[in-house]
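USER:
I would value a second opinion on how I read folds in token form. Give me a protein, with the fold worked out from its sequence. Write it directly below this note and I will take it from there.

ASSISTANT:
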Amino acid sequence: MKKLIVIPLVAAGMMAMTGCSKSPVKETAKVDAINLANLDTTVAPGTDFYEYACGGWIKNNPLKPEYSRFGTFDQLNENNQEQLRTLINELGTTPQEAGSVAQKIGMLYAMGLDSIKLNKDGMAPVKEQLEAIQRLGTKADVAKMVAVLHKEGMAPFFALFVDADEKNSSMNIVQMYQAGLGMGDRDYYLLDDEATVKVRDAYKQFIKQLFTLTGASPEQADAAVNAVMKIETGIAEISFSREDLRDTQKNYNKIKLEEFKARNNPLDWDVYFESMGLMEIEYLDAKQLPFYDALGEFMKNVSIDEQKYYLAFNLLNAGAAYLSDDFVSAEFDFYGKIMSGKQEQKPRWKRSLSTVNEALGEAVGQMYVTKYFPASSKEKMLELVGNLQKALSERIAGLEWMSDETKVKAQEKLSAFVVKIGYPDKWRDYTALEIKDDSYWANVCRSNIFEMDYMLQQAGKPVDKARWGMTPQTVNAYYNPTTNEICFPAAILQPPFFNPEADDAVNYGAIGVVIGHEMTHGFDDQGRNYDKDGNLTDWWTPEDAVRFTERADRLVQQYDNIIVVDSVHANGRYTLGENIADQGGLLVSHLAYLNSLKGKETPAPIDGFTNEQRFYLGYATLWGQNIRPEEILRLTKIDPHSLGKWRVNAALRNIDTFYSAFDIKEGDPMYMMPAERVVIW
């Protein structure tokens, strides 16, 4: 599940659709709560519970060439994609009013499918942008171009967005975040192990190939490679590590704009902020503030010509997926094959659908919930959330390591949770977004400019707490600390996550744990630093903070000891927040389930499994997946979530009731001595 901390929100809207509660809903086929074919009973639960619970699914769902990882999330997303494809194709069966949101959806989708036009256009859609970069001659010119590219959806040097001020959460503030790395993480530039060097060499060839496709000479292409690697390696060397990025206080640096401009000058800041329309702001949050100071020093040794190559690469890298097949193939060969281990591209319709979802997400989402999301699911979810809140409240009250003083604050925060389920109450208006028949890439740029303009307009204004951070058709969930909200989009409220036909044990083990997971994010190593109003403030006694950290550090060590592939270990510090949330979700949901049984007879076994066993099987089912070694290495660098296998095995080893449910005994590989088990929430 995704956790939103400092991520720009993307949404969309459709005025013409009716509310989903009044609309017909497609009947959902009955799905077995626990599919026995998903199990591998040749493996004992105490030996490897993940293989026991998911081994059959893993065998029956081999990786397709287009995937580097395929799990239950992906399986559900594929079903959603087919539904969305049907909805969008239906738009083409009848004429749509020019300029209507339906026409925009249909037109953008069709342009992504038009391989003939895309290949005929070649590099033409980026030609004018490239020529504009080539004309840059001064530092001021570069600053203006950086602003242009930021508005068009790229992030050279750094990223800028507008979000809640973390110490004044009711108001929005301009925020700047380190960025500028084409490979996504600093380790790819700084480490010299065999796997990393292989990726880095392939990246250099990718840069060269993109410039060659634009007609650059071999000498120019080599110069581009040298310039890009020089700048990106320099950025990597001064970037915060993944672990440092989790330090909420270290990454809050509110500063007056004039003071920020005076202390460093990697760009002509006056030109940049004027180009962004932000000269009137008084403050900004410069997040990784030392990064900009160091960037200013580094840029003293970077020529304008080198910066031009770097900006041109940012443009080509962003645009490649929306150009002719030779650009698309180059982009896929590096990011798909080399970095992730994929064997072939997703079909064109899936890629085009992804573009539409990014550009007109809420508009598509409104169509989706109108047809596919029953109001009853929302009602059931509200009930479950209420039950989980009560259970977490009970667990907080019973914590032996936390003082009464801190418990009061924790309870206040819990009771103030905002719950969003299914879809927004108000949809985005897309009237101002232009979709034209000039080029696919031009439309992508316009949609990004539309989104950035919308975001920039929020600077200095009150936070819109009705706004969603995910579209309804997203198979995911999130907690946002600055609004203290948990959100469960419509698309995740389907089997195996939520099954109206399933017994309570399975639903509590599945969607119940998802709910508990997001709730626990409010109290993980990052979330615990925000109060009930979403402000970054310390509400803990010093003693309780120490006790929390002691327990968290022990959990870090558990995951650090995991070998994910070959000799590569998991990163327990980087994944700490998600690991705390997994554990908390399991404990809270299990208690909520037990509470639901009070006054009732213990449910009879189903398919030979007790209710307790079905709870844990319901949870494990969520994480069945096949994954390529390349993707394991990539995700270990960039993903704050543990791999699926360890979200099961590593998490469950800390849960006492799991041991009794499956009779796990000392000597079993799944067994962990009670004194070594970590319980935080």
Q: What stands out?
A: Residues 1-29 have pLDDT under 50 and may be disordered. The CA atoms of residues 100 and 264 lie 46 Å apart. The first helix runs from residue 49 to 60.
